[in-house]
Amino acid sequence: MIDHIFIKNYKAFEKKNIPLNKNTLFIGTNSSGKTTILESLDLFFNDVFHHEYVIEKDEDVIIEIHLNDERYRKVFKSPDYHISYEDCIGDMFDINHVNYLYIPSVIYAPKLLNDILSINLATKQTNTEQEKIFKVFDYLDGRVGNNQFGLFKTSTKYEINVNKELNFSKQEFTTIISNITYPHLIIGIDNFENNFDLDSLKRITGNMYQTIINSKQKDVVSSFDYSVQALFKDDIKKEIETLTSTIDVTYKKSLLLVEGKYDVAWFEKALEELDEFKNYRVIPCGGTGNIQYVKKQLEKEGFKTIVITDGDTLGYNSLKRDIIELYADIDYINKRFNTHFSLMPQRKRVFFKKFHVKDDVVKKVLSSWARKNLNEDSIFVQEVKEILNFEEAYHDKDKIK
Question: At residue 210, what are phi and psi to the nearest 5 degrees?
């Protein structure tokens, strides 16, 4: 699945890295970037480029995904925005089997049906078919056995003649999507409530390789049993309505407030290992300085909140280590980043100085590691368990009073 997507110079984002889970629901105010994420994936996988979405006309558009611990970057070069093959990163043919279906808020039924037809009939290229493709090079320059160019992408498009008006109900749209048989399909649904009902959530998320949706409706957010991410256009203190307007105050889960977006994968995985995911929703607050403000505002609205911060805050509800990345496996870090740690540092400044990449890259990669590798016996998971037990006991004590 896609662990992260990086978007540069396209629609809502000048430059933005966004973590993803197997099933992710984005919430946010208008123009926060919910639709941009889905359309950026449509550009990456299906070459659907909107020139009017380019922010700076003299700069490139870049879409990069982090899939199965590998980077795949596509660069669309200014001013014409054709794909610049020499600037791309990763062997794109390695992910040729992954398809993406974008469902906009207003569905044109014939296009949807033809897209699904092409997806369901997609097949992997055989060696014989690849040889036939490469044979074309012989006719291009007259050189036999020309293999200087590798395969970037292959696809086959099918279209049926839909010559009558189609008006599907929400239930029919659900049935159509649920009947997709292709095993490696990522589906992006814009404004879920426009075309699907609540009962279809589990059918769709259960069948797909990965789902990424957005919604403004409280019922959808409350019914979504997976990762929910809030997108903030500006300072979170100005965007608290993003949370209060989309999460129902009668919601049974406690809101677990953490520092940053890269922390979410760590805490969600810990909650899964502790069989507590059903009781909490992880909310990133954009840094330590915002957490108490967010907590105060949410509790004013009647939400139950629990805070867990990094160890450098020295709070009663903080982790023991300076930053969350210090709980990662040292052997994995050394191998992945070509570092030479013999022991894990105690301080974050010492830790980040050893890397030759930006701090955000380290955080991004290690959040993907955490989602795949943490288990119930991990030190991080056990510390989360202790803090949650303490907080729950404290809340219970307050109730008795």
Answer: -160, 140
In angstroms, the CA 99 to CA 78 distance is 26
pLDDT tens-digit profile of 48-104? 999 999 999 999 999 999 998 899 999 999 999 999 999 999 999 999 999 999 999
Contact predicate 347/341, CB 8 Å: no
- At 318 the three-state DSSP class reads strand
Rounded to whole angstroms, the Cα distance separating 290 from 257 reads 10
Residue 225 CB burial class (10 angstroms; 0-12, 13-18, ≥19): middle
Domain range list for the chain? 1-105+184-237, 249-401
Pick the CATH number of 1-105+184-237 from 3.40.1160.10, 2.40.30.10, 3.40.50.300, 3.30.70.1450: 3.40.50.300
Nearest-angstrom CA–CA distance, 89 and 66: 11
At CB < 8 A and 24+ separation, what contacts does 353-358 make? none
Cα 150 from Cα 396, distance rounded (Å): 63
**Angle subtended at Cα 2 by Cα 194 and Cα 237, rounded to the nearest 5 degrees:** 65
Reported pTM: 0.90
Q: Is 77 exposed, middle or buried (0-12, 13-18, 19+ CB in 10 A)?
A: middle
